[in-house]
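User: For documentation purposes, I need each entry recorded in a consistent format: the amino acid sequence on its own, followed directly by the corresponding structure tokens. There are two entries in this batch. Please keep commentary to a minimum and don't merge the entries.

Assistant: Recorded as requested. Entry 1:
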Amino acid sequence: MTLQGTKCCLLFVVLTLFCRIEVVRGQCSGQDNINPSADTGEPHYSYPWEWADSALGVRILNPDLSEVELNPTAGNEFQYNFLIGESVVYAIDGTAVHCQFTVTVRDNQDPEILNCPGTLSFAENEKVTWPTIQVTDNSDNYILTRTQGLTADMVYPETTINEFVAEDLSGNTYTCTFTVIITGAAAPEIMGCPPAEAPQGSYIIREMAQLGATRHRVVWTEPTAVADDVDVTIEDGLHSGYDFIVGTTLVTYIFTSTDGTGTSSRCDFYVIVDAPDDGLPPVVSCPEDFTVTGALNQDLTQVFWESTPARDNVEIEQSYFLPASGSMFGIGSTDVLYVARDTSGQQTQCSFSVTVTANTDNDNPVFVSCPATFTHFVRAGQTTAVVDWSPPTVHDENQWTLESSQERPAEFDVGRSYTVTYTATDTAGNTAMCMFDINVVVDMARPGVFCPGDITMYVREEDERIPVSITWANPDPVATDNSGNVAIRQSHFSGHSFTPGIRHTVTYTAIDAFDLQSQCSFVIHIQVDPAPVFGQCDSINAGTDDNADFASVTWPSPLDTVTDVNPDPSGITIPTFNTPLYTSPHQFPIGTTDILYTATDVRGSVTQCRVLVTVVDNQGPILIGCPTGILEFQVHNRTFGSALVDWTEPTVMDNSDEVDLTRTLSPGSFRPPGDIVVQYRAEDSAGNQNSCIFTVRVNSLPGDENNPVFSDCPSNIDTLTDPGVDYVNVPWDAPMVSDDEDPSPMVISSHRPGDRFHIGMTEVSYTATDNGGNRVVCTFLITVRDEESPVFTSCPGNVFHFHGTNDDSVLVKLTPMVAAMDNSGMVTITNTQQRVTAASSPTQITVLAMDNSANSETCSVIVTLEETTDVLTYPGQVNMQMFRGSTDVPLVLDDIEDDLNDYIRCLPWTNEEDGLGNNDFVTLIITGSTGPLLFYEISFYEGNINNQFSERGRYTSQRIEEGFVSGLVGNPPQLFNTGNAVQSADQFQISVCEFRGFFRLVSASSDASPLSVAPLIATPRTDAASRLRQRIHLQLDRTFNMQTAYITSVILSPFLVPVPNSNNVVIVEFIVVYRDVDHVDPPDEATVQDDFSNELRFDSVSEYTELGSSDLFMPRSADFEIEKVCSENYCNNNGTCTIGDRYVSTCTCGFNFAGTRCEIDRRLPTIPTTTTQAPVTSAPDGLSTGELIGIIAGVVGLLLLLLLILCCCCFFFFMNQPKGPPLAAGPIPYEEPVRYAPRAIAYPEPLPPPPPVEYHPPIEYHPPIAYPSPAYMHEEPLVELYVPDHHMHSSAVGYGGGPIIEEIDSYPSYKRDYLDGQYYM
């Protein structure tokens, strides 16, 4: 088994900084590439290893290209220090490599600068110096670079910042920054700084510690300043008399002037404490002598042993075995030496012997497989042939070699037989053989091919031009050939469409590898079966029977005349029927009755005969009781000048009972003096008519015959709208009216001066009527014109669109980004969609906004296209129904790909924070198809604009699918541009697997300070909130992108949800999106949860759990949850899972099921709950106590109900009783007609609100007053209602002028019309 042939999973469990990796036995089995970090302070990673197979050795290719070979013993542990970089581990058998894996040791430890100076002050003429910068790094390979400032020997200005950066070969850095200040005054002078004995220009004090001690007190005479105005500071408190640890320590004195100059001087020296020589050597212990069996047939064997560490009263500096455990030992006995040395130089050793015995092999190798004798065919005329075969396989406990008598492939002569021999030999010299023959001959036999029998079928006459798909038994042709390699050609395939009426021949041709051919064929004949024929099919006309609304009709049945010609010998049965099922004779109603006769033969061919039975009504209606002669009436009231005329209307009879009676004058009409002829006309539905006539005469008394006269009728008015609105209030002088008989003619107007008039032309009319009924009309036109141009409410100056490498142009749609408004409320925006090519970018598009009055305004937008590969790509599929108006699937889908790109780009893909009009969509590419099912990849831009973080391209499948559906029209089908259609709205699918998760967040700063929740939630679009979203997104990407199927993560909005009753704790909800297509498997729920868990690190300082190295801190309990969205079988009992609010899996259950996951079966009986019931106490009459209580409660309830009804009756009776004398106005009874003195309406001024009214007992009730409609349409007096907010009552002016005071419990109980800013009832 090799690593390349097996997918294995190795679980690394990090217990401490040193990790142990257990390798499964069996060569490299179970061993994946590993990527550990270097041990702390070391340039390597120490790898404890247990090898699985002693037969294999180990070769390690180090990062510096040096090689090391080891021979570990199976089951024993050995250790190897892998250097920083990539090492390749080979499991080898001699020179053959069985498998390999890599160990890549990462160096994530920064260098360290040990003596970075602080602020340094020097006098103006003083030389600038500082101690040599000392760097340490675990790799010992670093570069120290001055990145800012000056060197020590240069002239310094007043203030200089020096910066040194130490960087190792892995890119880890450490920065030292210090300031050099040059003052005008001299630096303080120091006395008594220890003598200069140390290297690198520093001073040194060196002493010896006590035996076994780790610290030592060092005393020296502390340095002082010559001047008095100097402060002394000792860094880290390392003063004289301090207990120093064994080793080297830097001591620094800083002398600073207090005279205001700020100058300073330094005294630096090292204190070295050495460990003493204890005089006692270490104590060591060696293993007992032992014997091992050597590796099979090997001269060298890797040997391991366990050891006891050396002991000493001081630290052990070095201990080792020579040779070391895990070394290769030869056959025989070898002495091993163990040496230990302490820090004082004392050394001890011991020894033991290792004996290796030989291990031999006497078993022959075994051939697991050996090729059988076979024949190789060649083409006629060929003299030689190249022949190849599969080599045999061998098994042996030891390593082996395989030799063949014939190299493969081999060139053989035609017509001969050859014997091939394989010999297997193991390392012990044991052998085995495998033999087989190869015959090379010329192929002379033609292949055999087999066809099905002839096929005959029939089609209907109407289908004779429609090709028929014909399938036949065994659609895959069968052919045989001695060479075993034969190809078949078919003239037609099963399922091919054939034209009826023609004999079609299907041919199979078999061709072997040497072009020898054979053929067979069969015939497909599709014959046409004509439809049946009706011999007679005549319509019928008839008149109605006497005084009846029907006609009795007798007719011959067309079914008796049907004939059929059927060439199919299987039968000629003709099923026939008619609808409705009328039989002769039959009574048909007036009108046309449609009888449909149908004849169908056994082939399904249908012929129909339609018989129309038309019954005509030829009998006219009869008028009964029609007045005759002259009916005379008199005018008794000169006010109207007309008389009420009335009579009894005639009645009508007709056989059809459907008669329309019309009249030229209706009884009850008012007529002026004179004669009028009245005609009644009766007409039935068939058009038969009858009529009668008589005369109505009105005799009048002498009266007024002159119309009123208008003076100063206004002329037509032309004006403009008020700014910002579609109307204007237009004033004018109302015309005056006069009459020779009536001093106050009644005037009604359609509008009043100052009314609101909208854009357009409006006719205003005044109508005056005198008491003689004479009328006159004054009319004029008011034209309101709109000269105000539209205003663009949104006009993005610049719009960015990204496109893919294969897109040479994009369709840009500027709506809804471009929007306009107009005072008229009607504005049309044009030129909002235009195709822009990459070559013409940037392109200016001018958008025109025009209202209905032809006023216009323009908006210019600069559209810039940018090709990008910085995208997030989602796979998906769409099931099409129509391709540019056709249901046929095109062979080339480029046009459909262009249509999909145009349609999707014009959908609103803009994120709010990214700027108006910047479209996220990049491109859609069709990657394949199966019939109308298209497979695609859709890409969205995931980069930033203006270096500002955004969530561009981060979409869930629901967002993309809903975005596609939002532009579809029709149902069904669902159409989009250029005549394309999907089968249904749910047929556009994103092929992804999604997981919903959340975690609690308590801090987002490096010092783990509490999170300021309130401003982030209140203003989620601020820079601080955006930066936090960016950090969370980047950490989610780092957490989940180790899976190859990973696409993106999406934070749900709002992205911070406060936790109730928990200050400064929020919940972050997110969606993780993975590809889910055939060649990419998404992870399961457990894997996604593990990926998140592996990023959690407990911080002992803050006692929080950090997510990765992001400074995002969770509670110590690390609360989080991740679950798959709509996982398989999420809904029980065949429920349907859909994505609900905040991306929560939601189940829709069947009829008989309920519950959040359809887990409740309503058909199952409910298990009753067992309760303990107290014994029932019976009353003396046999009723239980519970029954008595129920009866008493029922009686009490009935009494309360009766009492409530009585109270209501009393209340209504009391409210309907008079409480005092009636008001002067009194009720106004209805009379016919009611006349008031005609007058021009004087529109009243609004009455002022009345003063507050104190509460009084209810005053007498009056019947409701029939309040008139708005005053300018009638002549009745006005009634005005004022309802001040601070009053409990309303005051109204009645007909008699007296006040009416009524209780108002609820303002909406009154119907109010608004007029002139006042309410009228």
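Entry 2:
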Amino acid sequence: GESLGSDRDTPVSRIRESSGIILGAMSACSADAVMDLHGTDVLPTLIVSSNDACMTAPSTLRGDSAPRCVGLLETAASVMTFNWLHPSGATSSLLDRLLETLDVGIMAHLFQMLNAPVEWDSRDKSSGGMKAQAAACRLCCCLFGIAITSNSDIGMKRLMDACDAGQPHRQRQSRGPRNIMEAVLTVLQTSLNHGHKMLVGSSNTTLHYQAALLDLVEAALLAVGSMSGSAGAPGGVDGVISNENDEIVISNERFLSRRAEVCRVACDIVVRKSRSGPSLLPSMLVGGFGEGVVAASLRLALAIAHNGNKEQHSKLASSGILVPISDLLRVALSKGQLYNFSAALALVKFCGPYVTVGTGGETQAIKNSIAVVTNMLNLPINPAASAEQKKTQGALKAQCIKTLESLSRNASLWSTISSDALPSIVQYLNGISLGTDSNEGNDEAYCSALRAVREIVQVPSNAVAAAQAGLAVSVGKLLQKLVLSDEPMSTSGGPEVDSQAIQLDAVAVLCSMLLNAEARRYCSTADGGILASICSVMESLRYAAEVDSPGAAASSLPLMCMEVLHVLLEDLRSPDGSLKLQGPGAAVFIRTLVGRPGFLKMLCATLLLKTGMQIRQHDGADGDSVLPIPDLYGVPIKSSTNDPCRGFTNVGEASDAFLFTSCVLASSQESSDASDFWSIIFEPDVGAPQDENADVAMTFCAMFLSLVHSGYVPFNDESKPTNEIERSLVSYRLLETLQRLLSGLPKHDISGEYDFGSFIVSMLIQLNAPAVCLSSCKDQALLPLAFGTLRTIMSTPDEEMVPLLIENKQSALSLFDLLNLQVSDGHGVEASDVQSFIADALEKLSKNGMLKAATIRFGIRSQAISGLAAACIRDQSHIIGEDLTSSSLSSGLMQCLVDLCTYEGEGIVLTSIEAQAIAKSLGKKICHMVISRFLERAKLTQYDIEQHDDMLEAPDIAMLCAIAQHENGLKELRTLGGFHALALVAGEGELMALHALEAGCAGNPELLMEGETYVSLMALFSEESQQKEWFQDGTKRNKVESIALLLLASLAKTSGKGRKAVAAAKALPQCIERTLAVVRTRAPEVVAEIQSATNDADEGPTISDDGNDDDNADDKDDTPVDDVENSMDKISLDNNADDDDDDNESEERKPAPSTGLNQAGGDSEPTTTSSTIPAVTSSPGTKEVFSDDVLVASLQFLVAIVQSRAGLHDSLIQDGRFVAACDEIVKSKTESGPITVATIELVSTLAEFVTDDSMLSTSRCVEFFGEVLQEDIRPGAGAGAGTDGDAVKPDDPFCLHTSAMLGMQVLFGTMSPAEMKSSASIVSRRLAKLIRGQSIPKSTASPSWNKGSGQLAFTMTSFLLRLAGSRTDLFDKSTVNSMANIVQWRVDPKSSIHAEDQAHWDAAVTQSLQIMDFLFNANRSIPSKSGLRVEFATKAVLMIAKPGKAPRQSVNLLSALEYISAKGESISRVLAAALLTRIRA
């Protein structure tokens, strides 16, 4: 050889290159040539020849600078593609070809070709490099495709090893691709970039360049498609269906991870949007890169869709691919291109769920695709078609259904699917359920159909459309088919499908439609088909549980089924919620349930689960023994989710509610179906022994009844108007069956009693059957059955049955309600029988204390007492036939009442409701009993017969006092004239009776006039009373006397008749002597001794009954003894003498303010201060200690009676010890406020009778009043507690000073000049302090902090006004300033005045104006003599502030006078105008 100009450009290399060019051309255009080459096993030789060093150099024969090996590579690619498309025999030959090529180092050679530089800027030289890379890409496509389709993992393993060979070295040497997969992706990216430039015309290229570039794009797409997991050979998929289930399962982890990465990168490459237009993949699919690129790009997109993730699906969807795919789908269907159709369908399936509304034409494309899919579903099966054709069409329909399922996950497509595809889906399901359509074993297809519809029907309008299309009927029939079919369900070539999962989807679809009221109209629920389907599903769960083969959906399916069942029940209810008990709907409902006995028994088993399927043995030795309940009903309804179901807490409650409603419907019908219903319910297992069946049925009835009457929520929906009727209907059937089964038990031969046996007795005790029957007796319709069953149960001698009657609150209440039972005619039971039975039971319970314990435990004492009391009165001839004044009550019910109300150590204790109930029913009887006792004692006393029994221990007296402690009970007694009975008891020193009188007279003390109640109170101070037990107890005596005295004082102060009656009473002297004895105890010891010695030498005057001194006054009160009925009449005093005078006197003389201690608490201990001084009593050697309460009450009594009893005031003002006691109280700094107030009030009352010679002289009175006025208000000065109507004002903190001022006004005319001067100064200072305290108060925490201030201001200005007329010299600047301040205070808008004091303050303002007018206008010479000037008033400053606020100056006097002259009352306006004139003069 001649040299060719290069070491490598040898003849051999030229011959090889030429041969490669020829072979490449032949294999590209001749299939025969390819087949010949395939038969010679030339593939390894071609690879080895092309991999020679001289063959990789640029060609000198070609004008495109392609490597010399291009022809050989193209030939190898054609041969390998042919091998892939036409494998000879088995797939193992493909694996052999793969391994042969890998063994000759093809991967390294291809990596070199792919990474060879391409001169893209040269139009001539770039095409050769592109051809070499295209050939390398086609070989890569074949290598990866064959490795994927081979059955052995060895091929993929060898391929991946070859890919990774040399990768670490490449990572160190270069930044380019590290392996062949990255190299192919790089080629794809580069070629697409240049191809896009060519398409948009941004590069000037030749046709040769364009052809090479487009071929490279196609080859790169094919190679990347194979690397992404596509198993289909290029050009070999026509006439087949693309299905993801056909993809080969690959276990090579390296390839799987690389495949995921390739899918991610390839997706980014093909959907990446360029600067000058949209993404490239849609352009490739529409042929923008050539016709060959369409199939390759579709193949790659399908591989990415199958093997990529959701992110790649979303990118594909957003790339615009669905627009051409939609067109491809339509064209493929019309031309019968199965692969293109199925591939496009798969892309729609994977990408459609990620289309968003408003993203270009994608939404419309998807809608168009849905229309194509719908057309496919509507294509009928040609009966004349071959089996293979039918199978193919069924498979295509299955893929369409799966595509619609996938699209249904996109909520924006629901309306389109509903309007276009829903009827077709329904038709598809209907064809499957009827067997008219072929699904060729692909049961997963209608699973997908159900899931698709399940998503769509969530929209109400779609649910209506689905129902109108007949979906409910189709799904119902499908469920029937699924339940009845014994063959397992499977996908084509896939695993078995869980039939329960399909059932769950079907039930969910039904539930969605039935929950929609509009859709339910089209669901054909009236024929019972859907109900039968759901019941069949539930039965299938029972059978699956029996063979221990529940599916994965077994936990959710019961929940969904119960939802549907409760929705079906809604069609049997009226708008108000009541059941339509009669009619075809109810009949069909019961007939359908009877046809599914297994489901009914499941409901019963579920209800019986509440027992825990065991009964605690009542007579077990260890107390923990249990008896199992035979499991005759079978498997219950269970759900592991424990989610709420149709408003109920869980599936169990929903099941119980459904059973209850079904029983209601069956109870309302008289038909063979209803009879069969009850036979199924009450016969758990036909094959079980009869006694076991009876035991389980009785347990079921007792459990059902217990839940019905225990407020179990599923059985007690109070919102339904007929709930009570429904419970009665069910209870009737249950009681009837329970009584029948109990009556069928054997009896003892001797006693004749039923032999219940241990299980029945234990069951009745645990389920509280007696209490349930007792509660049922309240229903007149259930009374005969309930009472008969109860009597049968209680006939057992077992003692544990009786306590069950009060086991719960409802049954305990029923006991007392049945005591007053009134049975209507025709009910077959006598009320007397029921009452007698209940009375016996109550007596047994009362004897052992269980009745009282139950009433306390359940909080029903009031109801129990009401029932017993009503029963006692209702049948007095039977219950109270003996003398009721005896100390014990022989009647059982009355004894129950007494026992119920009596507590150890406390006596009878009642609540307000209980007291009112007893007072209404037994009040009159009790009052008669009490009065009869006192009349009986009076008769015995009259004949000097001694009575040894303590009357206060009698139950009727104790009951009377207990009733009277409550306002409601006391009102009832008052209406019955019971005050007389209370007064008789109070006269015995009974505190409870006294408290009752005190409460009853609150606001109306004249009630004490009824029956001469006041006489009984005054009798407490007689000599006979001092011998009684209560008098010997100092604490109790103080309480008794204080309450009695306050009541008498209240009566005397508020009523002229009352005052006259008290004053005329024979017991008044003893009352006065007692009160004086109490007051004298406050006298100093020295004075007491002196007075005692004086009394020994000369006995003081004694006040007789008629007001004169009479030592022989008769203290006995001979009250005539009348019969009981006359004694119950109200008694009033009828005194004809001086009634009118007394009434006038009551109107003219109003009691002065005073205070006392509150006795509302009654039982609280008396407050005894350290200043309490023991008094010298009339009994030598004994000393009495009187509480402050008694002292206040004594003083109040004297205040009330002093002016009505002749000679009493003279006796008091001459009593040295009394005066000394008053002096001690007034001057003491330790006495409580109420005592001082009462003392000053009494002294004020006596002031008009004092003289200078009396022990209580004028000067001493003035001294008392001055002492009081000089002291600031003591804490609690007004905190007394008198009864309503007395002069004590507990909320008046100024009453002490007011009383002192009232007394000082009485003494005004008898004061000496010195006393008048001193008094004027004291009053002036007190007035100034009063105004200061009102204008700048220290605290206003109490709402009545300033109550009474107006009356005090009025009395002080009245005193000063009288003083101004005679002693103007006693007025000074401070007094004038106070007068001006009063005017300013009243006029200032921010002043705080109590509502009750406004009139007094207005009067005080008027008198202040009079005083200033008198001082400055009446006698102009007076101001000059006294030194008073008008400026003293005009310059008066008054500061006003609220607690915690800074003080401010009030309105000045001139402004105040101007305001009064304009808006004041008549006299005030005149006086203010005159003062203004004087001031401005």
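Summary note for entry 2:
The longest helix spans residues 912-942.
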